[in-house]
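Q: Is it fine to ask for two folds in a single conversation?
A: Yes, each is treated on its own. Send the first.
Q: Here.
A: Result:
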Amino acid sequence: MENNDLNILAEKLKAGDENAAEMLYDYFAPKIYSFYIVRILHKETAEDLTQDVFIKLIKKIHTFDPKKGDFAPWIWQVARNNLIDHYRNTAKRNLISFLPYLDAFPQGISKNENLFFDVNREIAQEIISTVREFTDDEKNIFSLYHLSGMTYKELSKITKKSEGSLRVAIFRLNKKIKKAFNEK
C-alpha cells in the first residue's frame, strides 16, 4: 500500500469508517507483531502490544495530521512509544533467545524476511546471538528494517536519521552478522 492510500484510510478512520480500521489493521498488524516479537520474545506479550497499538490508534487518530507527515511513520511512532512504555512498566530489557518462538512469526510479512525465514534454526540462533550484542539503537534499526520490512525512507522518519546513515548502519549490522558466521 502506498503512503497516500494509508493517509486516505486514516482520514476515513477519523470519520468513523470501520472498514478503514480493518484495512489498516490487516496491513499493519503482522508487521507490528514482528517488530514486537523480536524485541519482547514472548508471543502473548507481542500479541497484546500489537492490540494496544490499534486501541491507541482508535483513541488517537484525531491527532493524525497528513499535513505534518504520512500515516505509516505516525503509526510506527505509536508502536515504538508503546514498546518504550512496556519496557518502563515491566523492566524487561534483556533480549533472550527467541528460538522457541520462531514458529510464531507470520509468514509473508516482509520483503526482507529471507534473513530469518529462509534459514535453519541453528543459523537463526547464531543471528540472534549476534543481535543480542547490538546496542538498543542497532536492535531497533535491525528489527524495523529486517523484520518489519520498512524502507529507508520510513526508517528515516521514525528514527530521525538520514536515509544515507541508515543505509550505512544496516550495511554495518549485516557485516557484523556475516563476520560472526565467518568466525565459526
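Q: Second one now.
A: Result:
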Amino acid sequence: MAKYETKTKETDANVIEFVEAVDHLKKREDAYKLLEIFEQTSGYEAKMWGPSIIGFGTYHYKYASGHEGDAPLVGFSPRKAKISLYFATGDTTREETLKRFGKYTVGKSCVYINKVEDIDVDVLKEMIIQSIAFLQELYPNQ
C-alpha cells in the first residue's frame, strides 16, 4: 500500500503576493484584516501552506493509522465562494464558542464566512487561542 502524502505543506511562497492576487477586492481587504488578526493573536508569522492556505504556527501529528505529517496550528484561505477558517478538529469547546461567533457555516475542519463584518472578531481571537492551546496539548513537545 502506498504511503499517503499530504498535499498541504508549508511553502516559501509570498503571503502578500498571494493576498494581492485575490480577485475580489472585498475578499482581499478581508484577507488583510484576517492576516493581522491571526498574526497578532497567534504570535506566529504567516506562511503559505500549499497553494492557497495561509497558516500560522505548525505542529506534527501522528494518527493511530500511522499517518503523520505537519500542519498549521490555525489558518485561513480567501476562497472564491467563502473564506475558510482552519481550526483544530476534535476541540469540543469550538461548538460552544461558535454560538457567539456570528454568521457562518461549518464543515469537517473548516468554518466558512462570507466576510469579516459577519463575525465577532473577539470570538475569532478566542477561537484562535483555543485551537492553538488544544493542539499544543494534544501534540506536546513541538
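Q: Anything structural to flag on that second result?
A: Two points. The longest strand covers residues 74-78. Residues 23-138 form a domain with the Aspartate Aminotransferase, domain 1 fold (CATH 3.90.1150).
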